[in-house]
Amino acid sequence: MTAGSTGRMVEEPKSAAGFLQATRGIGFDELLEAGRSDATACPLPRQADSVKTARDVTRSTLDDWGLSEFSDDAALVVSELVTNAVRYSLCPPSQDETAPITLMLLRIAPHVLLAVADPSDTPPTPKEPDFTSENGRGLYIVETYSRSWGWDHLNRGGKAVWALFGDSD
Question: Where are the alpha helices (DSSP H) in the chain?
Fold first, then answer.
């Protein structure tokens, strides 16, 4: 599958990087350090209240860009991605316990790509959702509410899990 598939996981981890480079000539590593008007990067501590901060940053950024129609779905998805990043960056502890989680949003009109980078090299693994369990549905929610999603290794170590929002055309 590719980044153009509607509502399905991207099976090739470099698909997002290829999409970014084809459309903007930039990958996640560069986004983390770039000051761009069409991108926002927000470092987050590895703690539970980072989820609320990520939702707030996502909503305000989308409002500033005039893309508030994606706010509800993007806030739900970013909640799941940051929750996973916090959970998996703490257990087992990574080598650099000070490395933050980073929320990134990139406007690629008429789309928005949001990503959460964390220091863990462990790829996200979708599970069959168990609707009676309190957890295990995060990636199912990401898949359901975004146009497509996937993950990329970062050159500095760790990964970025991303979700694309926009029209299916």
Answer: 15-23, 28-33, 50-64, 71-90, 138-145
The whole-model pTM stands at: 0.77
pLDDT at residue number 5: 35
| Residue boundaries of the structural domains of the chain | 8-165
Tens digits of per-residue pLDDT, 9-63? Answer: 434 434 555 555 444 455 666 665 656 678 888 999 988 899 999 999 999 999 9
In this structure, the number of other CB atoms found within 10 A of the CB of residue 6 comes to: 9
Contact call for residues 103 and 116 (beta carbons, < 8 A)? yes
Helices and strands: H and E segment counts in the chain:
5, 6
Pairing assessment for the beta strands 111-118 and 148-153 based on DSSP bridges: unpaired
What are the residues facing 163 on neighbouring strands? 114, 149
The partner residues of 93 in beta bridges, in order of sequence, read: none
In tens, the pLDDT along 140-162 reads 888 889 998 988 888 888 889 99
As its CATH architecture, domain 8-165 has 2-Layer Sandwich (3.30)
